[in-house]
Amino acid sequence: MAAKTKFQAIRGTRDLLPPETALWNHVEWTAHEVFGTFGFGEIRPPIFEPTELFARSIGLETDVVSKEMYTFRDPTEELDKILIDVLRFAEEKGITFGFGSDNVETPAKVQRILSEQPLLQSESVTLRPEATASVCRAYIEHGMQQLPQPVKLYYMGPMFRRERPQKGRYRQFYQIGAEVLGGGDAPAIDAEVIEMVMTFFDKLGLTGVELDINSIGHNAPDCRPAYIEKLRAALEQVKDQLGADSQHRIETNPLRVLDSKLEHEQAIIATLPRIADHLCPDCAAHYAAVKRQLEMRGVFFKENWRLVRGLDYYMRTTFEITAKGLGSQNAVCGGGRYDGLVELLGGPPTKGIGFAIGEDRLILSLQESGKGAAPQGRDIYIAWMGERAYATAVRAAKDLRNSGFSVELPPTELKFGKALERADKLGSRYALILGDNEVSEGSWTLKTLVDGTQQKFTEPELLEFLKQRKSGS
Ligand code: ATP
Ligand code: MG
Questions:
Q1: If you count DSSP H runs as helices and E runs as strands, how many of each does the chain have, helices first?
Q2: 8 Å CB contact between 356 and 175
Q3: How confident is the model at residue 103 (pLDDT cuts 50, 70, 90)?
Q4: Which residue of 110, 141, 251, 301 is 20 to 30 Å from 273, comparing CA positions?
């Protein structure tokens, strides 16, 4: 006997099921709607990209790139190796190849021709851990700098990071994000992007929303690098009081020490120099203007000098939004400005700002505050008995579905009592009762299941009645 294998979803991944998926759809449709009103269009980049795209943009010293990416070699590499062996063999034996009609080519030339075929060029690919790099890659690839600037794009979909799974943290998770590329770095752009996220959360009725903002300056000698040197020097002074992670980060990425959640490091961090006191005049002015612009839009925020964001490409404005009911994974949105990123990826100098919302956490928070989706019942359950009634039932189901009602038509005959029981269990609003009597009379009985009342209708009357009830409720 063959052993039975019990398959399970891979650790850190999960199935999203009804009725919860109705809430996911509601969230996604609200995003389409709200982002549309701000003039954003949807982009759907691929799920995997060259590893190099993420390594270069996110940064080698980040957790994401150093240990969390799902990376694999495209198997065509193996094919390449085999091919090279075959060609070498042919070379030794003096075998030549015909290409096209009658051209005779040497193995060396064949190898050159084949190596120019993109399909045979293997590369290391990675399941996307985030989508900003992809959006910038697409901006460059499609020459979007030729379009009216700024280009405003949003996306939604799965991301992949090999992290320790826990509440609100998965290995396949979902993000909804947006990017504004090109068209300058006016503080109004930063403020409007933030206003858009807050409008979206507001529309969803997300509770306990808190927006933290900060400026992390830019990469010029009189700005962030000077601050980082001060910070590093200050950290060296207290090094032996810090944990191993923070000690390591003094070398690799001292800003990230500010991000530490370790209890015993908090008092030490509170004494460190703050970037707001070390911004260059331009960055300081930009930050002040962003705050004014947020106030103009009635967007409440809290300044948080320790907010640094985990990815390398951020500069100037950074922000994070937290919500209720999520425990320690309470960040539902992270974002910021990344003016150098497009250029870093080989494009023209381009300003950029964007954010990514953790959809899983957003949904969790909505559910915790009682805004989860109620199980979706059927509108109409058709209880039929008899051959003739069945033919009518099939036609009725088709008409009702065409009019937008959800209809359950049992595939085999059930006694009326049994059928009504099932209708109840499925949370149906109405039962349409069709027996041979009803069919010969041409009148259909509709039972309202909450109160048990029954009414008789002709077919057109019935449709009319249901439509009115639907638009009325
Ligand atoms: P965190 O500090 O919580 O790890 P992050 O800084 O790594 O977040 P970003 O890369 O900025 O997160 O991604 C933006 C948002 O995506 C986060 O605020 C969060 O809501 C969500 N997110 C990130 N990683 C995960 C994950 N593994 N599972 C679920 N959601 C995630
Ligand atoms: Mg993270």
A1: 17, 18
A2: yes
A3: low
A4: 301
- What does the alpha-carbon distance between residue 456 and residue 458 come to, in Å, rounded to a whole number? 7
CA–centroid distance, 282 to ligand 1, in Å, is: 30
Q: Which atom of ligand 1 is nearest to the CA of 355?
A: 14
CA distance from start to end of the chain? 57
Residue closest by Cα to atom 21 of ligand 1? 358
What's this model's pTM, rounded to 2 decimal places? 0.87
CA distance 405 to 467: 9
What is the distance between the alpha carbons of residues 443 and 5, in angstroms, rounded to a whole number?
53
Q: How do residues 112-169 score in pLDDT, each as one tens digit? A: 776 666 555 567 899 999 999 999 999 999 999 999 999 999 999 999 999 999 999 9
User: What's the CA gap between 263 and 266, in Å, rounded?
Assistant: 6
10 Å CB burial of residue 174 (0-12, 13-18, 19+) is buried
What are 69-95's pLDDT values in tens digits? 999 987 666 666 777 788 788 888 888
Radius of gyration of the chain (CA): 30
Mean pLDDT over all residues of the chain?
A: 91
DSSP one-letter code for 9: P
Look up tokens 């090999």; give the residue.
162
Phi, psi of 199 (to 5 degrees): -65, -40
